[in-house]
Amino acid sequence: MDKRSIAIIGIGKIARDQHIPVIGKSDRFELAATVSQRGIAEASLPVFRSAAELYREMPEIDIVAICTPPGPRHLLVREALDAGKHVLMEKPPTQTLSEFEDLVRHGEARGLVLFQTWHSQYNDAVERTREILAEEGVRSVRIDWRESVRKWHPGQDWVWAPGGFGVCDPGINALSIFTRIMPMPVFVEHAQMAVPANRQTPVDVEIGFRTADAHGPALSAHFNWLEEDGEVWTIAIETGTGRQLSLERGGTVLKIDGETRVAAPSEEYERIYERFAELLDTGRSDVDGTPLRLLADAFMMAERVEAEPFDW
Question: GO: which molecular function terms (predicted)?
Fold first, then answer.
């Protein structure tokens, strides 16, 4: 099967760490060009300063992966769709729900494939957990998502600017798993966001959730961005039958009553591109906005408290 040429727009950490190497070993895609305002080149491939330049100089490329921060994403995706390109979007998709919903409508109107990726969903342990909860129900869920902003976003001030999400940038990964495994809709009941005195987005977040059932399960999440001793990406669950489940290492490991039942190396991005290939083959889009909607609700509901100033 011939490989499909794809260009990456936005050459930052996630593109270099994940997209470029995964495309490099894919049997469905080959990287044909990059777009970087800073002129960052990949090997000997053409590099363009703008998407418009790419579309003008290499019109034969009809697939793009947009890996920029969420700020410019809405205009970049619209530009790509208007140029007749199929689009894969990194997470978080956009700064606002209105932007995201506009892109969904615009992709449909153009008849092009639009794929909103939620990489943390693409693990066997997540899917097995979803199956268990669909059968046994849920009594409680506690999300604990802690990592170091200095490690994962070194010097990237955009994460602290309005629209940059703060610690909710990694936290939305947890919400993408949460919304995938829950057998019923969930809603934000209350939230608290601690924002550094010299920044605009939160460094620590606590969220309480509820279901439509007044006597439903106990559901909560904690995100923190100052964990310097490694990462804690864990979701602790009690099922309706009393079994204790623990999704660990970002959704790659599932333990049931303390016993490891699923443990696999992370192949999230490999599976994202496999899914993208399926969508392109069938001409269908995949644009679930539930994690973004839940996060937007948390920002709307949140009590804001001041935290210590943050400096790199």
Answer: nucleotide binding
Catalytic positions: 91
**Verdict on whether the full-model pTM lies above 0.90:** yes
**48 in a structural domain:** yes
Q: Is the same domain home to 80 and 214? A: no
Same domain, 87 and 203: no
Could you report the per-residue pLDDT of 125-180, keeping only the tens digit for each?
999 999 999 999 999 999 999 999 999 999 999 999 999 999 999 999 999 999 99
